[in-house]
Amino acid sequence: MPAPNARCVAKPAGGPMALVGQALYDVADPVHPRLLCQVSNTVTHLYTGDTFQYIRRSGDTGTEVVLHSIGSGNESVVAGWPIKLLETPFGKVGAWTTEGNAAATAVQATDPAGNQMIQILLFSQPSTKMLYEFFEPLTDCICRFGLATPVLAFSPDGQYLVAGWPIGKGASGLRVFKVADGTSLATFDVSYDFAMWDRTGHRLYVSGRDAGPAHSWTPEDGWSVLAGAGAWPYFTGLSPDGSQVAYTAYLDPANSADIRVYVYDLTSHTTRSLTDQMRSEVIFVKNRWVWYLEEAKCESPGTSTCPPWGTQPTGKVFVMDLTTGVETPVVFAAGESPTSLQSGWGPAEFWPNS
Predict the structure, then answer these.
(1) What is the mean pLDDT of residues 17-45?
(2) What is the mean pLDDT of residues 59-74?
(3) φ, ψ dihedrals at 336, nearest 5°
(4) Burial 318-351 (b: 16+ CB within 10 A, else e)
(5) How far apart are the C-alpha atoms of 213 and 168, rounded to whole Å?
(6) By the 8 A CB rule, do 64 and 86 touch?
(7) Which backbone phi and psi does 123 adopt, to 5 degrees?
């Protein structure tokens, strides 16, 4: 596979950053963001205001973590494990704890009957163990957002791991494990195909495209419904301070004709539609501020220029200050938009986290 690559520019210290897809932006002014770095062929996590971590192969079966300085370009290897995180049946969805003492990955296997399986492996210093395995799902889907993506993530405190891919016939539900000893603590219904951790501690938020309201789970309190919440089906992500959830959904889940963007407030337990216009793929880029895509109907659904569901993004990105509800186009410098960079899109990582 191509080697990981990071292209960065000098950055004044202390400003807020958002990692959107594989592009890192200075978002001190979220209406006029400034591109800092573009990273490719790897998985990246922000570390400090001047550094990020990324992973690369080490030999044939290992992985190492590289700490990259944005300002100087200097790099150093800070951790490594005897498992592969990049080339897996989960794609580039490897997970590791900040200090590098634990990592998790998915590997392909075959059971005694010849069925294709996926095994979830946990490396917890100093050994590796298989947590569980499930049938490898079929992954074809002619749909706007594709099938639900694999889930593999450590809680911020490093004590728990959520893993799974509950899609297809014979699906197995998402599961939570205790990192210290690999104990299985919870298995969720297969209709819940999405999970994300709170910004701190180990509260897990769980939702699904075909499920009821979103729920939360902790090992202390178990499973509880989130008052005032619906399902969070697409592009679900937390604000940097963990107080709000942004997501995309259709007005009618059974009909993909009209799409909207929403924010759920975890304190007031209220859900808010951000605009009555067609918008999609909303993400937080800093507290109070979201980016999202303009969506428009197109002619001749099912052709090369118009997907079967009849709508698509126009290429314009909007920003909204949630305190005012004012929508404004995002102004990227020439060649620095995610579309121009082909750097991907999705819920962001932040520095700082509040």
Answers:
(1) 95
(2) 91
(3) -110, 0
(4) bbbebeeeebeebebeeebbbeebebebbbbbbb
(5) 21
(6) no
(7) -100, 120
